[in-house]
Design brief:
Chain A: Its cofactor is pyridoxal 5'-phosphate. Chain A: Its EC number is 2.8.1.7. The complex is a heterodimer. The model of chain A has no long low-confidence stretch (mean pLDDT about 95). By secondary structure, chain A is of the alpha/beta class. In chain A, α3 packs parallel to α4. Chain A has 13 helices and 13 strands. The two termini of chain A are about 45 Å apart. By secondary structure, chain B is an alpha+beta fold. In chain B, a hairpin with a 4-residue loop joins β1 and β2. In chain B, α4 packs across α5. The longest helix of chain B has 21 residues. The model of chain B has no long low-confidence stretch (mean pLDDT about 95). The chains are: A alpha/beta, B alpha+beta. The interface between A and B is medium-sized, with 31 and 30 residues.
């Protein structure tokens, strides 16, 4: 077993060796290095063919047409293109947008920009399980609503939203629905024929492809129009100019192909590992799972270890690569906005750790993780004045703390 | 974020973790910070009849730098008079532990903990 153990698959994944092998064939003189936009020679034609195959593989995973796939630099760009592109194109119809408080910053910050441009944004507040209900969406719709942007799977707590239900509502009200699927593609089923989604953002590096490449699904039926955000040579039917990075696109295609083929089997394996991890720590006192357990992807578990501060726990778990909802590292000192939005108090938000497991996680690694989590929670609680107070039966909320 | 070697040393081998009886007249207790902010420090000093700090203990809920700052001050205050201890500043702590700017509040908290403990002792023995 190699240390440290990587348990941060929601942040990024290693490239699958099968993907890397294909990617390398599209770089050098003896490979297919051509520009897919070159129409006058075979270097260009072969690169274009490789891009076409990848486009097909990506479309396949979501039951779409390959002409509905637009390549971008990643999910952040896809989110920007979808939200700004649709808002700008349909801006004459109305200027109201609906999203949720637990969205990724790439969505929230894009919406903030649109607010500065005169759009109005409603931020839905999910329940304590992290789920936004179809009723909430329905209630927020207005005459001038042009766009709804809601994520499929949350990056911090892994909860799954009922996208098909949102799709029904949006389609019935002729509102464009954009879904950020960076954390769901290849992990749970996405079928654009059933889900009635207009725009979907994808990333390659969350599912064992390379960083720096993503895609946006743009529905043809009904036909969704976007105002391009990147101007230039008119690539990707004018929606996203810029020379297509053949090697990255081919790699993304292969990653999506593998995901489609292995998703069901992989999910079973991940669920077993996650259950093992949770069972291994949940008998300790004051341990809380953040977000719904019923609607959650197999690879994610987000746990608050009360009375232990997250960053010091991350430091103690130096043999584990994990993320914390404690923002002690950031200048703001604000803990995770996602956990705050689902009603977790600051203490529990500060005490949270996200474990995300994936294709290369082993049972041995999970067992080792359990062992060092247990040891260090004990050690840090022995050092925590809050733990003492809890043990003495003192209510921490009854004390007047000096906020600094 | 990369921590300095001194922070890691204090974090991995914290000095003087523990508690004294807070009702003991010779014990000064200072508790500062807030759980919502992500750090709470409890510093206790045992003070002899000559007003010299003979022992110190701490418990801290917080990040590595907060734990290291409180561990460090328990070492520094031992053998000092209350006035000498009160003159320890956050800049000395920051310098000793090579804390980055985002962690300076940890050193401020440690300075505050000393002052809070001394105030507690003075009010107890007034």
């Amino acid at each position: 077993m190699k240390l440290p153990i990587y348990l941060d698959y929601s942040a990024t994944t290693p490239v699958d060796p099968r993907v890397a092998a294909i990617m390398m064939k599209y770089l050098t003189m003896d490979g297919e290095f051509g520009n897919p936009a070159s129409r006058s020679h075979r270097f260009g034609w072969q690169a274009e063919e490789a891009v076409d195959v990848a486009r097909e593989q990506i479309a396949d995973l979501i039951n779409a047409d390959s002409r509905e796939i637009v390549f971008t630099s990643g999910a952040t760009e896809s989110n920007n293109l979808a939200i700004k592109g649709a808002a700008h194109f349909y801006g004459k119809k109305g200027k109201h947008i609906i999203t949720a408080k637990t969205e990724h910053k790439a969505v929230l910050d894009t919406c903030r920009q649109l607010e500065r441009e005169g759009y109005e944004v409603t931020y839905l507040e999910p329940g304590s399980d992290g789920i936004v209900t179809p009723e909430q969406l329905k209630a927020a719709l207005r005459e001038d609503t042009v766009l709804v942007s809601l994520m499929h799977v949350n990056n911090e707590i892994g909860v799954i939203q009922d996208i098909a239900a949102f799709g029904e509502i949006c389609r019935a009200n002729k509102v464009v629905l954009h879904v950020d699927a960076a954390q769901s593609a290849g992990k749970i089923e996405i079928d654009v024929q059933n889900m009635k989604v207009d725009l979907i953002s994808f990333s390659a590096h969350k599912i064992y492809g390379p960083k720096g490449i993503g895609a946006l699904y743009v529905s043809r039926k009904p036909r969704i129009r976007l105002e391009g955000q990147m101007h230039g040579g008119g690539h990707e039917r004018g929606m996203r100019s810029g020379t297509l990075p053949t090697h990255q696109i081919v790699a993304m295609g292969e990653a999506f192909r593998i995901a489609k083929e292995e998703m069901v089997e992989e999910n079973e394996r991940l669920l077993k590992l996650r259950t093992r991890l949770l069972d291994g720590v949940s008998d300790m006192e004051e341990v809380y799972v953040n977000g719904s357990m019923d609607h959650r992807i197999a690879g994610n578990i987000n746990i608050s270890f009360n009375y232990v501060e997250g960053e010091s726990l991350v430091m103690a778990l130096k043999d584990l690569a994990v993320s914390s909802g404690s923002a002690c590292t950031s200048a703001s000192l604000e803990p995770s906005y996602v956990l705050r939005a689902i009603g977790r108090d600051d203490e529990l938000a500060h005490s949270s750790i996200r474990f995300s497991i994936g294709r290369f996680t082993t049972e041995e690694e999970i067992d080792y993780a359990i062992k060092i989590i247990r040891e260090n929670i004990g050690k840090l609680r022995d050092m925590s004045p809050l733990w003492d107070m809890y043990k003495e039966g003192i209510d921490i909320n009854s004390i007047e703390w000096s906020h600094h | 974020m990369a921590y300095s070697e001194k922070v890691i040393d204090h974090y991995e081998n914290p000095r003087n973790v523990g508690s004294f009886d807070k009702d003991d007249k010779s014990v000064a207790t200072g508790m500062v910070g807030a759980p919502a902010c992500g750090d709470v420090m409890k510093l206790q000093l045992k003070i002899d009849d000559n007003g010299v700090i003979e022992d110190a203990k701490f418990k801290t809920y917080g990040c590595g730098s907060a734990i290291a700052s409180s561990s460090l001050v328990t070492e520094w205050v031992k053998g000092k008079t209350l006035d000498e201890a009160a003159s320890i500043t956050n800049t000395q702590i920051t310098a000793e532990l090579a804390l980055p700017p985002v962690k300076i509040h940890c050193s401020i908290l440690a300075e505050d903990a000393i002052k809070a403990a001394i105030d507690d002792y003075k009010s107890k023995n007034a």
